[in-house]
């Protein structure tokens, strides 16, 4: 799963200076955030299809979504070599960004795949 | 409450799949049509100048700690002094954005195009869905919901005994409308025409008042706490070099 986040390769200026002066490159930070957003959307769609095919209902499906998002976060963190601060300005970005926007796509594709496989 | 409704497989083949596919294709079509219709307008020199000015001031603000105090003060004075500073806008000279908007027909035209390309396909699709697929249950969402959602999910079905998790085709259309946004941003790229938030930004940027942002930039430049970083950098360089050597 971490493989998808390879687009986050755009390096920000090294965060060594973080001890005193924050040195950010705003554009690179934005590119990194975009990479997070894309990988989250992609994974929520894929996760929705998987959840639908496996036939999860009600709470199980939402737990599955949280699981997928947690795996995404871990994948993103692993991709950044466990040094978040050289790519992003805070942990919240990695863990929470794009969480709610992914939910809608997840529900749609979950419903779609579930109906295809289980209802008819 | 009916336990399990049996849905006809023809509904899947002729309603659910076509509806979703059509929604995706219409989204793509709309993206390219609005791309074609986008007129490139010549930007006003004054607006561009002000934008660049703001960028310069912002750069000064973010890089403030890398220049000596004297230089910083000189630059800040250049930007924000009260007589002829670049960011200082005399009162009463601010152009009225509303008037500007009406004096430039191209701008209004552009906005109308944008809105039309949004509204027309949506109305058409909605009418199409309404005409062909109304009056039956098309799908079932895999999680239970309360009665409150009935009007949202079973739009077009007036039965109070059907389980709320069954979705009518009209509501499936709405679900698609909102849920496909993520997919569009994946397949069409960031600046696609279907993105609602983007559109809101453009809307608000339309009545955008440059003098206001000039004033805001001036204020934030005024409150910058200057702290020259370079004297401490020798120690840091020393620490880094020591780390490298050891």
Automatic annotation (TrEMBL), chain A:
A Pfam family it matches: EMC6
GO CC aspect terms: EMC complex
Domain of life: Eukaryota
Chain segments annotated as transmembrane: 37-56, 62-82, 94-114
Cellular location(s): Endoplasmic reticulum membrane
Keywords in alphabetical order: Endoplasmic reticulum, Membrane, Transmembrane, Transmembrane helix
InterPro entries per the UniProt record, alphabetical: Emc6, EMC6-like
Gene Ontology BP annotations: autophagosome assembly; protein folding in endoplasmic reticulum
Mode of membrane association: Multi-pass membrane protein
Family: Belongs to the EMC6 family.
Protein name per UniProt: ER membrane protein complex subunit 6
Automatic annotation (TrEMBL), chain B:
Domain of life assignment: Eukaryota
Membrane topology of the entry: Multi-pass membrane protein
Pfam families: EMC3_TMCO1 (PF01956)
Gene Ontology biological process terms from the UniProt entry: protein folding in endoplasmic reticulum
Keywords: Membrane, Transmembrane, Transmembrane helix
Cellular compartments annotated: Membrane
Bilayer-spanning residue ranges: 14-33, 119-143
InterPro entries membership: EMC3, EMC3/TMCO1
Family as reported in the entry's similarity comment: Belongs to the EMC3 family.
Name of the protein: ER membrane protein complex subunit 3
Organism for this UniProt entry: Quercus rubra
């Amino acid at each position: 799963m971490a493989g998808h986040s390879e687009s986050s390769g755009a390096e920000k200026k090294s965060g060594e200076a973080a001890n005193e002066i924050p040195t950010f490159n705003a554009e690179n930070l934005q590119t990194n955030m975009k990479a997070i957003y894309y990988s989250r959307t992609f994974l929520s769609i894929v996760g929705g299809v998987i959840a639908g095919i496996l036939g999860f209902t009600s709470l199980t499906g939402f737990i599955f979504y949280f699981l997928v998002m947690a795996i995404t976060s871990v994948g993103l963190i692993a991709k950044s070599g466990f040094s978040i601060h050289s790519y992003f300005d805070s942990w919240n970005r990695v863990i929470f960004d794009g969480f709610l926007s992914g939910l809608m796509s997840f529900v749609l594709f979950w419903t779609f795949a579930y109906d295809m496989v289980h209802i008819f | 409450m009916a336990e399990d409704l049996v849905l006809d497989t023809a509904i899947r083949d002729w309603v659910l799949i076509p509806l979703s596919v059509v929604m995706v294709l219409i989204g793509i079509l709309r993206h390219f049509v609005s791309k074609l219709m986008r007129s490139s307008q010549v930007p006003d020199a004054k607006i561009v100048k002000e934008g660049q000015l703001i960028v310069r001031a912002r750069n000064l603000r973010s890089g403030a700690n890398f220049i000596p105090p004297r230089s910083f003060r000189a630059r800040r004075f250049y930007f924000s002094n009260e007589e002829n500073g670049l960011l200082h806008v005399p009162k009463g000279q601010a152009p009225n954005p509303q008037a500007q908007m009406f004096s430039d027909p191209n701008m209004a035209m552009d906005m109308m195009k944008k809105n039309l390309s949004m509204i027309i396909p949506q109305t058409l699709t909605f009418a199409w869905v309404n005409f062909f697929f109304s009056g039956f249950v098309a799908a079932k969402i895999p999680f239970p919901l309360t009665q409150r959602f009935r009007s949202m999910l079973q739009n077009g079905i007036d039965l109070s005994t059907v389980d709320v998790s069954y979705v009518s085709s009209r509501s499936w259309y709405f679900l698609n409308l909102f849920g496909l946004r993520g997919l569009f941003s994946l397949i069409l790229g960031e600046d696609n025409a279907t993105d609602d938030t983007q559109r809101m930004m453009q809307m608000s940027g339309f009545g955008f008042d440059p003098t206001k942002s000039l004033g805001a930039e001036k204020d934030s430049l005024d409150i910058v706490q200057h702290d020259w970083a370079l004297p401490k950098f020798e120690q840091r360089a020393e620490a880094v070099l020591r780390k490298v050597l050891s």
